[in-house]
Each structure stands twice: as C-alpha cells, then as structure tokens.
Amino acid sequence: MGNEKQLYLKGLCIAITGVIVLSFDALLIRLSGTSGITAVFYRALFTFISITTIFFATQKKNSIQTLKDGGLPMVLSGIMWGISGMGFTLGVQTAGAANTLVLIALAPLFASAFASIFYKSRPSVVTIIAAVIAIIGIWYIYKDGFGDMDIRGFLFALSTPLFLGCNLSYLRAHKNMSRPASVMIGGMTGSLLALIISGGGLAIEGQALIPLALLGLFVIPFSQTMIATGTRYIRSSEAALINSSETVLGICWVWIFLGEQPQQNFLPGAVLVILAITGNSLYHAKEKR
Predict the structure, then answer these.
(1) What are the C-alpha distances in Å from 180 to residues 58, 74, 100, 240?
(2) Which residues does 267 contact at the CB level (< 8 Å), separation at least 6?
(3) Residue spans of alpha helices (H) in 25-62
(4) Model pTM?
(5) Distance separating alpha carbons of residues 200 and 19, to the nearest angstrom
(6) How confident is the model at residue 72 (pLDDT cuts 50, 70, 90)?
C-alpha cells in the first residue's frame, strides 16, 4: 500500500507540474495578439517541431520501433490531442472565453464516463463531486459572461472537454504508450487541420511568432507530456480535474504580467476550484495509505 501511495503522489506531482506550465497558454496567446485558426496552426506546428526533435534525439535507433509498437492507439491519442487543442482556440473565438472555459471543466465527467463505458472502470464518487464543485467554481468566475452561443460555437467549445477527457482515459488504459510520440502526432494533427480549414491564409508578423514559438516549442510539449504521463499513476478523471486549475492559474498570470485585474467573482470561484482539487487529492492519497 505504501508503494501504491508513492506512485499516486508521483502521478499527482507530474500532472500538477504539467498543468502549471500549461496555464501560461492564455498569457502567451494574448501576448502574440493572434487568435483563431492562425494561433491553432502555429501553436500546433511549433509543438510538432519541438517534440519530434526531442523524440528522435532521445529514442535514436528505437524511434521507429516505438512508433510501430504504439500503432493505432498512439495515432488515435494524437488525433484527440490535436482536436482538443483546436477546439479550445476556436471555441474561444466563436463561443467566447467564458462559455469555453466553463465547458472545459466538464472534462473530468467525460473522462469518468469514457472509462466506465469502455474500460469498466468504476468512477470515484468523490472525484465526481469534486468535479461538479470545480465546474460551479469556474462558472461563478465567468457567470457574468456566460450565456448565449450558437450551435457552432457550442460544438467547438464542447469538443475540448470531450476529446481531452476521452484521451486521458485512453492514455490511462494504454500505460505503455509513448507519451511524447502521442503529443507529436497531436501537433501534426492540429497543424494540418488548421492549414486545411484556413485555406492557407496564415500569414503572421514576425514579432507575434515569438510568444507562439515559446508556447509551441516548450510549454505545450512539456505540459501535455507531463499530464499524459500522470495518467500512468492516477485516474484520468483526476488528471482532468487537476487540469481545471489551469483556468484559475491562467487568470493569475494575466493579472501578474499584464496587470489585468480579475473581476470580483474570481476569488470565491477560484477558492472553490482549488478546494475541490485539493480535497479530492487528499482523500485519495489517504485512501492509498
């Protein structure tokens, strides 16, 4: 049991580290002054370049065999990474940031449902309750902006928690799959989809490339690999729940670095989210004792 608890805590630390790094996503997008499908393309393209270089440099002679061993599951996971990333950016553009960020908090529920249906993994009641509390917290932060959206915007916004939750459960079920290779395929998928949808009109000023390059070359590859690796030790629903803190942290970074003070709803909502994640983690860590 002691070893089981150590592995659980290891998974928590890995996933939390990944989410902390990922939370700089919103700040870097803002600094680039780029949005929509253009941001999706460069974000995904730089991710593909970075993680591909790292993958082949570290795997060397084993790289081709690793890709062969991953097979279809690795490809499917990569596609889900690509779609979830594209859905988030397009959701913000079409449905609005408030609607998208509230809906992305549904990821733990989708992860639980996917694991329960396809892998007969019984969801944790405590995690479900914590996920609902986190959803309420994020909704409270954005309640003034949460509202009407058309069906197109709703589908874009919903695609992120749907594919993210399903992908984390899928990764949990395929523990031996190479995480960097999955993220690599995700970057390729996202950039190709963005290129097709845009029709090639993706010109951007050189200065705007710097934040997007930082995001794609370092932030996304590292964070997605860490979050995916965390699913080897903790349930996918818990990894998705921890991911909910990205919203809170992202607001903090924009506040600190850009001086944009959050609305008065932020503090109560943020406290709910952090308490939900902390309470769930403490409960399960104690359970492993």
Answers:
(1) 10, 10, 27, 19
(2) none
(3) 25-32, 36-59
(4) 0.92
(5) 32
(6) very high
